[in-house]
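Lab notebook, bench 4. The sequencing result for the construct came back, and we need a structural model before the next group meeting so we can plan mutations. Quick request posted to the team channel:

Model the 3D structure of this chain.
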Amino acid sequence: MKIKLKTAQRGKNTVIGMTLLVISMLAIQAHASAPENTSALTTHQRNFGVELEASRVIYHEAASGAVLDISNHHDYPVLLESTVKDEQRKSSAPFLVTPPLLRLEGGQQSKLRIVRTGGDLPTDHETMQWLCVKAIPPKADTIDAPAKSASLAVNIMVNECEKLLFRPQAVKGEPQDMADQLSWSIVDGKLVGNNPTPFYMNLSLVSVGGKTISSPGFIAPYKTKALALPAGASGEVQWKVITDLGGDSRLFNAAIH
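Done. Here's the predicted structure in token form:
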């Protein structure tokens, strides 16, 4: 038995995908006057998902809060539980999501509002938190099982987290405005990126000599990050960063120091 859990990216939208499998077995009928007949095992699949209308949330210090739009494109309700975690996703961050628990009806759209509740956050560079939304599937009794069959419903809860970037008033502009300031070097056989800016540089592309580095992640403000070099890679570095709207910046390039 396989349970598939899918997360798909569509443009600026992130889809929390969840697969609900209902396994139905037809009864084996035995007749004294006829040979025994068995029916095939059939699998009935029903998907549900909640769409977050942005791949990241920028919380400006001067604002009274931040808002994330959500949509339920199915014809049945989904229960959502939302919290904000720190960068390591281990502890609660000083932000409140309202409503913390939301029933989103089929075909309905709504909003999650994030409000800062305190915390001693740096004023000279961004800090990262994670907005985590847990989507709870419908109850098993809302799923239609085949007539005259035995069925087993398997429910899965998905906890999807998106970046929540707190941007102090002193930090002006956007990441792509300073992305050309990243510098690169080779240390112990790895490509090391240095970020001298106050922004989190979320990298959508990094390549060396035309060879792409998979899953480059991000470089925190005033930090460095080591990336595995593709075999035989040499030459200049090219990179793109993710913008506030979730798209790609222009292509940057530089020599390795």
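The chain has one helix and 22 strands.
Will bring this to the meeting.
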